[in-house]
Amino acid sequence: MAQRVFAAEFSSSNYEIREGDEKGVVYVVTPLGAKINRIMIAGVITEKEENQGENWKMYTAQVSDPTGTFRISAGQYQENAAKALQSIEPPAYVAAVGKARTFTTEEGAVYVSIRVESIAKIGEKQRDLWIYETCRETLHRIEAVSAAMELSPPTIESLSKLGIRQRYAEGAVLAVQHYGRVDVDSYRGMLVEAMRSIPGIEEKVEEIEQTAPAETEDGDRLTEDEKALLLIIGSLDSNNSRGAEWKEVERIAIEKKLTKERIAEAVGGLLDKGMVYEPVLGKMKRI
Length: 287
What we know:
The chain has 10 helices and 12 strands. With 287 residues, the protein is α+β, with helices and mostly antiparallel strands. Helix 3 runs antiparallel to helix 6 (184-196). The radius of gyration is 19 Å and the shape is globular.
């Protein structure tokens, strides 16, 4: 599943791990414990550059979210993404999915970037939804890392006993082992500013200023809206092996009297609970 992470957190990362042998999956671990192979970002593409050699061509760009800037690229091995990136003229709202990568300079400095697999122009509302969902995910990680820093040593088992879900617990342990004490207050402040960038969202800021409660087995139960959305995605997905078109999911949900705010809440809940994922931009698929 593609992780949602803000630029400020991602850009602060300098820890890469590989699972299994030398051909195993590579992950970038952030200071809040996001364990990233694939990442989904959204924001404004502000700069774009074409780099070309005798037998190759690569496009690089910068995408800004409310917290900072992502560095992205696409080349000959990401042909579709490269063509899409070539066609987008800054400034424009975009969403992208890609592989997280690290680069170490001769001086030992570590930088992160994203090798884009798909990218598309989006609207402001889709960007706002990404911000909201990314805030939710980041709150879970803040809670997990905060708990891990109070344990000596932190373990997945001890965090699980506190009600932290396993994927957050695993990431928190890795983060604390590598980064030590993390300034979670600065990240909480980052979330407040990110939420304030969404028009009309001021009344929700108090939700962001407090750490999200620990999830328990009861927290994994589906709400009525989540059940309704899951049925819609499942019915559309059965007719399309690549996933349900999000616009069609939203249209049917609105016909069933769900507001766009309730739809956003429900899809965020389903993503949090691992019930659905995004195989490509603009599609949803049941797990």
